[in-house]
Amino acid sequence: MSENKVLATVKGKEITQQDVYAFLNQLDPQTAMQFQSPEGMIRIVDELVNQELFYLDAIENDFDQEEAFKIELEKMKENVLKQYAITKLLSGASATEEEIVKYYDDHKEYFQAPESVRASHILVKEEEKAQEVLKEIKEGLSFEEAASKYSVCPSKQNGGDLGEFTKGQMVPEFEEAAFNLEEGKLSDPVKTQFGYHLIKVQYKKEAGTSTLEEVRNQITQQVVGLKQQERYLKKAEELKNKYEVKINL
Fold first, then answer.
1. Could you give the CA distance from residue 164 to residue 205 in angstroms, rounded to a whole number?
2. CA–CA separation, 189 and 134 (whole Å)
3. Distance CA 178, CA 168 (A)
4. How far is residue 19's CA from residue 42's CA, in Å, rounded to a whole number?
5. Which of 26, 47, 170, 243 could form a disulfide with 175 if both were Cys (CB 3.0 to 4.6 A apart)?
6. How far apart (Å, rounded) are the C-alpha atoms in residues 201 and 165?
7. What is the DSSP string of 237-249?
8. What SS3 class is residue 55?
9. Residue 233 and residue 239: Cα distance in Å, rounded?
10. Averaging pLDDT over each range in 36-45, 202-211, 223-232, which range is the top one?
């Protein structure tokens, strides 16, 4: 549906699909999920219509001229202006390549990576079925095709790929089999509480220090965050010296 599609009008004011998206984005994810249906969208449009009606009624009754409203408006203006000033101050902070490399070299102890594997699996309910699937793979059916065809795990949509994981993230029986398999090898059926798994290890990583490229984004965010903090505190100190400040504790 086009984001510009007009879903309702109130005295000529258009309510569009984009307005619905904006309303959803203001909600926490769990609440927003309750409106992810045609009926939910209708409820949101009804609410947006109601809000416009209350706005029109407020204007007609000169609520915007009342002193209480002006006080609330001024408070909101002050808060928005404070946040705008802070955002403007911090927005120029960035990390240079030299700073990123230096941070990495000075903090390598923070970038220790545990042993990990990347594995795919096929999950079925019965051992007999697992043996049948294993036989088909050995006879030429690709692991990915077999996963898509037989697995009852949602990972079947990705050929059974579970991504990269470390010890402690999988159930013990699965973890033991995966970490003991050689790269590219296929396991015999492995029983867990979920059923029977055929596991294939794509690659393994020994414990060690993450490379700079692996943690570049993390370091960049850290360096920028430190710069923003420094910039914020420095500016605050300058303003304390410029304007009269009294703290009574």
1. 9
2. 8
3. 12
4. 13
5. 170
6. 11
7. HHHHHHS------
8. helix
9. 10
10. 223-232
